[in-house]
Queue: 3 jobs
Job 1
Amino acid sequence: MKLTLASSKFDEQQMIFTAEIVERIKLKLQEAGVNGEKLEDLTASIALSITGVIDDMAGIEANGLEVHPYLTFRTDDDELIHCGENAYTYEHVYAAMKKLFHA
């Protein structure tokens, strides 16, 4: 598999990925009966927590082993794109929230 640096393409896919995470969180909370301002607050809180893990900001460690995720996206069968650094999905949470809750 080929790993390709493609920052703008990565950012586009990262925005879509983050929006999907936020939307799925909202839907699951709605299914659980959460609504109104609490729905928005919990969606944002959970989304920021998850994206912090994806972006390697969470300090993951188990049994003395540190875990450092590095987000990539598959563009075809033999290529992965990356941005050359840790992902920054958390920066896209607010735009996704705005679209879902204030559109």
Note: The first helix runs from residue 7 to 31.
Job 2
Amino acid sequence: MGISDTLLKQRLRNRLIESLDAFVDEETVSVVGTDEIIECWYDYMDEDRLAFYDEPVFSSDEINAIKLFHNLLESSYQKVPSTWKIEELKECAEWSTLVTAACEAYSIFLKRGFFDEE
């Protein structure tokens, strides 16, 4: 017997929160690099999965934050340098915009925090 959809959504919600945090955390960037951070987001989010992320596990504000961040990433990821060096990202407007958006989305998710995974 598999896990319930609710539990699966709770786990995926937590992974999305961690993914948003990775965009914001310069130490994570310097360890895994921009490509891996972007790929991690796509491990949990794409257009087909969005409909699965629904209430009550995801609030309407969280769903909107996911959509906004995902659309921004879709329109800008190709302009982000493949790097582990924060210095190389300082002049990248697209990365800066992604970090700001990730920070905003992260704070929306933290209002309700991480959910139980068991």
Note: The chain has six helices and no strands.
Job 3
Amino acid sequence: MKRQDVFQQLIKLKNRMQGLIFVQLALDFIMMYTFIRTVLSGDTVSLFGKIMPQDNATAITFLIAVIDLCFTQIRKNYRKMGRTLIGHLGGQLSEDEIMVIRQFERY
């Protein structure tokens, strides 16, 4: 791959990670909401406008946690791919490349 292609792939990967962080933040909030509602409720729990038994609410909380864990693994793979792309850039880096690399490392 050409140097410019590698740089473009790194930019795309950085943008994906940016979007993924926002999705994961929303999932974290939803998971904490369902967990707190489930723990503080009695036999029936009201989640998202629906009344359900505590067992079902616990299962929903668990499934949201699993989805959140999957997004964490996706971010981990994106970071690994980004490090590989950064390694392919190597040599003298332009200012644009350095800026994108720093932004990527922030995520």
Note: Residues 3-40 form the longest helix (38 residues).
